[in-house]
Amino acid sequence: MADSGKRKRTEEAEGGDGDCVEQGQKPQPLDNGGLLGVRTELTPAFSFSAFRVEKVLRESAREKIIFLHGKVSGDSGDEKDAVVILEKTPLQVDRISDLLNKKSELKLQICNDIYSTYTLYPPLELNDVKTTIVYPATEKHIQKYRSQDVYLVQETGDDYKNITLPFLQTQSFSIQWVYNILEKKAEADRIIYENSDPTNGFILIPDFKWDQKQRDDLYLIAICHRRGLKSLRDLTAEQLPLLRNILQEGQEAILKRYSLPGNQLRVYVHYQPSYYHLHVHFTALGFDAAGIAVERAHLLSDVIANLELDPLYYQKRTLTYALRANEPLLKKFLDAGKC
Amino acid sequence: MADSGKRKRTEEAEGGDGDCVEQGQKPQPLDNGGLLGVRTELTPAFSFSAFRVEKVLRESAREKIIFLHGKVSGDSGDEKDAVVILEKTPLQVDRISDLLNKKSELKLQICNDIYSTYTLYPPLELNDVKTTIVYPATEKHIQKYRSQDVYLVQETGDDYKNITLPFLQTQSFSIQWVYNILEKKAEADRIIYENSDPTNGFILIPDFKWDQKQRDDLYLIAICHRRGLKSLRDLTAEQLPLLRNILQEGQEAILKRYSLPGNQLRVYVHYQPSYYHLHVHFTALGFDAAGIAVERAHLLSDVIANLELDPLYYQKRTLTYALRANEPLLKKFLDAGKC
C-alpha cells in the first residue's frame, strides 16, 4: 500500500537507523582516493569519482532536486548501477545574515530602478547539497525514481463494475496496519480523536508525512471503523452520518488540539485512494500537499452535497483520475479500449 | 486582473530590460566597500553589508526560496525598507559530473546497506543563489511578498446572489485585454485555434506563464467568444454545446499542434476565476501547475456531467473556495457572518 510504502520509502530515504556512525564534522576532501582512503565497514562501496551519469530519471527545477541513474566501474572493470539523488538544501533563516554579509561573493546581473538581481556565491559551508546514494541499485530502484507519463482515465460507473472492481479483487492489498490502528494494536498513543461507533465512528491520527513540529504542513487522516467501504465508489446516502461525523468532529478535534479552525483545513478523499479502506485527509489549507490536485482529490463537503443531491451519485458518476504508465490498472483500461 | 497582474509581476521579477548593463563574469568579492566601490548609475544603492533582517515574509523549504523584509541603514543613519528574495538555483544536468567529480567536498552522513547519504559542498561557481532586491521597498512590496493566511468560503447559491455577485458588480475589473484578443487587436499571431461561432465558439491561446519551449509545463487558455458569462456560477445546460466544443476541439488542437493527447491534459475552470470572462485552463497532466488544487479547480468534464445531471447545478450548489486574508470578498463573507 502507498502509505506503508511511504513508510518504507521514508526509511530508505533516511537510511533507517543506519549500521554506520556519522563521520567527523569537518568536510573531507574528495579525490580518487578520498573514499577509498576512509573505506571501512562504516562507509559505502560507492565511489563518486567512478560514477558516470547514464540518464536523468527525474528532475524538478521548482524543487531543486535531480534523480540520476548512472554506472560505477569497479577496479576489475565491471560496472554496477547506482541511483544518485541530489537536492539543494532549504535556506535557513538563522544563516541569512552570514549568507549576505560574510564572505559571500556576488555578481550584479540586472538593475532597473528599485529592482536589482544578483548571483550570490555563498561560502561552501553555507550552501550544501543533500546527496543520497543507492548502490548497487536494482532495476526496481531505477524504476521507482523514474518519472513516468501519467494518463487520465474516465471511469464510468460500468467501467468501475467491469474493470476496476474485478481488478481490485485480484489484488492482495494488506491493510493489516489499518486494522492494527483501529484495534489499538499499534499507534494507540498517536490517536488524536476517536468516535468509537462501529458504523459511524472513526479514528483521527496524524499522517506519517507530518512531523507534527509545525502547523504549516499539518496532515491528519481519519480512518472509519466500519469495514468494507473501499472508496468513494462505495459511498451512498447511507454513509452520510459517517461522513458528517468525520467532517464535523474531525474539524473540532483539530481546532481543539492544534488551534487550526475548520475554514483553514482542506478535508478530502482520494480517488483512486492509496489503500482501499475508507479514509479522509485533513491538511492545512495553506499547505501545498501532494495529492490535492483536482484529478485526485474530492472535497468531503462536495461528496456530502453530491450524495444529498443523488444518493447513488458515486455509483453512476464518471470519475476522472490519473494513472502512471506502469500501473496495472491502466493496462486494464487500455486492454478494454477505454483510454 | 491576475493575468495582467502576472505580466506585471513577471516584469518586476525580471527587472524589465534593465537600465543597467551586466557586470563582468568574474564574481566580485563582497565587503563593506564591495558595492560602494563599483557604485555608479549602473548599480543599485542597496548595500548588503548594511542590510538587517526584520522579518521572514515567506519561505518554502520545498522550493528552497525565502522572502525577507529588512532595513538598510544609510550613511546618515536613516533606515529604509528592503525586500530580499533568495532562491537556490536548479541542479543542471550538464554540471553534474563536475559537481560529483571535481573539487566538491563531501561528508558521509549515514550508511545503511545499499543506502547512504552525504552532505556535498560544491565549489562556489557550481552552487549559486539567485538574489533579487527591491530597494527602497514600499509597504505595497512588503505586503505583496508576505504569505497570508487563507480561509475556506462555503458559498451557497444564495450567498452568491446576496454577497459575491453584488460585490463583483461594484468592482471595475478591466478585461479589455481579453476583448483585444477576441477582436484580434492583440496577440492575434499567438492564437493556436479558433471556433469563431459567437455563441459556442472560443479562442485557444498559450498562457503567459508558458514559454512554449517544452511540453512539460504546457499551459493554454480557451477564451469563449460569448460575453457576459462571468464564471462557473453562470453556467447552465444552455452552455453545454460551448463547453463540449472547448473540451473536444481544444484537445484536438493541442494534439495537432503539440502532439499531446487529451488523456495527458488537465482541462479545468477556476472558481473564483482571476478574471470574470469565462475561460478554460489546459495544462499538461504531469505539470504541477499553480491553481490545480481541489479547492479552486473544477474539471471541465465534471462540469459538463454535473450540468447534464442538473441544468441548474451551479446556480444551486454550494461551492467551496479559498480566499486570502486581505481579499475584500472575504471581508464581505465575514461581515455577513458566513465564514
From TrEMBL, chains A, B:
**UniProt-annotated binding residues for substrate:** 177, 187, 207, 209, 270-281
The biological processes this protein is annotated with in GO are: deadenylation-dependent decapping of nuclear-transcribed mRNA; mRNA processing; RNA splicing
Q: What are the subcellular locations of this protein?
A: Cytoplasm; Nucleus
> What EC number(s) would the UniProt record show?
3.6.1.59
**By its UniProt entry, which PROSITE patterns does this protein fall under?**
HIT_1
Q: What keywords does the record list, in alphabetical order?
A: Acetylation, Cytoplasm, Hydrolase, mRNA processing, mRNA splicing, Nucleus, Phosphoprotein
InterPro entries to which the protein is assigned, alphabetical: DcpS/DCS2 (IPR008594), Histidine_triad_CS (IPR019808), HIT-like_sf (IPR036265), Scavenger_mRNA_decap_enz_N (IPR011145)
- Complex and partners: Homodimer. Associates with components of the exosome multienzyme ribonuclease complex, such as EXOSC3 and EXOSC4. Interacts with NDOR1.
Report the family membership.
Answer: Belongs to the HIT family.
* Name of the protein this chain belongs to: m7GpppX diphosphatase
Q: Which organism is it from?
A: Geotrypetes seraphini
The upper taxonomy is:
Eukaryota, Metazoa, Chordata, Craniata, Vertebrata
What is the gene called? DCPS
